[in-house]
Amino acid sequence: MPCDALYLHIPFCEQKCPYCDFYSVPARPDRMDAYTGALIRAIETAPFPMGRLDTVYFGGGTPSVMGGKRLAQILEAADRQFGIQSGAEITVECNPHSSLPETFRQLFSAGANRLSFGMQSASDRQLALLGRPHTCADVETAVSQAQQAGFSHISLDLMLATPGQTAGDIQAAVDTCARLGAEHVSAYLLKIEPGTAFAARDVGRLCPDEDGQAALYLTAAESLARAGYRQYEISNFAEDGQIARHNYKYWDCAEYLGVGPSAHSFIQGRRRFFPRRLQAFVENGNPWQLLEDDGPGGDAAEYLMLRARLADGIRWASLRERYPAYDCDALRGRAKPLADAGFLELDGEGLHLTVRGFLVSNAVIENLIG
Ligand code: SF4
Fold first, then answer.
1. Are strands 257-259 and 3-10 parallel, antiparallel or unpaired?
2. What is the pTM of this model?
3. Interval between CA 258 and ligand 1 midpoint (Å)
4. Given CB 3.0 to 4.6 Å as the disulfide criterion, which of 53, 55, 100, 128 pairs with 246?
5. 273 CB less than 6 Å from ligand 1?
6. Cβ(16) to ligand 1 under 6 A?
7. Strand (E) positions, 234-304?
């Protein structure tokens, strides 16, 4: 099946959050104009055959700081070049900032239909600790402005296991997601990445220990379930029928094309990426010359590793269809002791990790793959 998923990296933010290691630089109008042109050029010269797009994802960075006009131009270029299917999922990541109402109107008329907000917490104390430049009320206002502009598909990101976070903070955040009408919630454990300001300040020492993290993760999963969000991936929860289709393709080991500095792709059976160099991407007349090859992808081990993150796990029929020579009996043998220990469930249809398994997913998946 031809690749039908496009990821566009927008490497601009209003300011750098102290825990973040995504590639982003300060948003400046001249830079964003030049980048819009470079991204459109890259789309128009993509060297891979693509099918009509089923999903488009603007990630970052903070795509919304680009403004609706620039993002609409990029989306139009993608439609001209590849075609966008009717009913495609078109997502834009956003953070609260001043020019949102106009941006939302322009994005909605350009065909975007799903917004993902970096809410992170409903506690202003927690948001300040995380160095976020917004309050919870700012997020509420932004979501309401998005809904007024016509967006009904809203996803909110929450951060778990932050310094001093309590179960009450998590419950309050989940209640806020439900009250705002979000249909999708991503809940990630804070990880102190090397090279970030949090790592330099050793903020990790203030974060909950492993047991504390596990307790907060379980609190989040249970609160979200009570609020009607079904867990479909280790960190992702959605109302029925509202999973993130684009992200699901990553975990289903489907192909996608990523464009922009730091964007990764899985295309024509290979993992590839653009280096984290905005200037080179903008100045090179053919940015595809910068694309680096990260080796073959999509083998059975990688497929198992990705699918194990999903609540519906690994299905024997799909595994056999995709990898006819794979030794499913050996996999069942490795899975049995993990099932006996309560980390996964195993039956005639396939296997999937339990919530307890999700808590130690790296170790479980390592044992599973063998
Ligand atoms: S807004 Fe998002 S991408 Fe930008 S610095 Fe903060 S966490 Fe990173």
1. parallel
2. 0.97
3. 19
4. 55
5. no
6. yes
7. 236-238, 257-259, 264-267, 270-273, 292-296
Q: Is the CB of 17 under 6 A from ligand 1?
A: yes
- Domains present along the chain, CATH in parentheses: 3-251 (3.20.20.70), 313-369 (1.10.10.920)
The pLDDT tens digits for 42-101 are: 999 999 999 999 999 999 999 999 999 999 999 999 999 999 999 999 999 999 877 799
Contact 234, 344 (CB under 8 A): no
Dig out the tokens for 189 from the structure.
Answer: 């454990």
Ligand 1 centre from 66 Cα, in Å?
Answer: 14
> What stretch of H or E contains 57?
strand 50-60
Ligand 1: atom nearest CA of 19 is: 7
d(CA 36, CA 30): 10
Ligand 1 atom at minimal distance to the Cα of residue 93: 2
**Proportion of the chain above pLDDT 70, given as a percent:** 100
Angstrom distance (rounded) from CA 211 to CA 87: 43
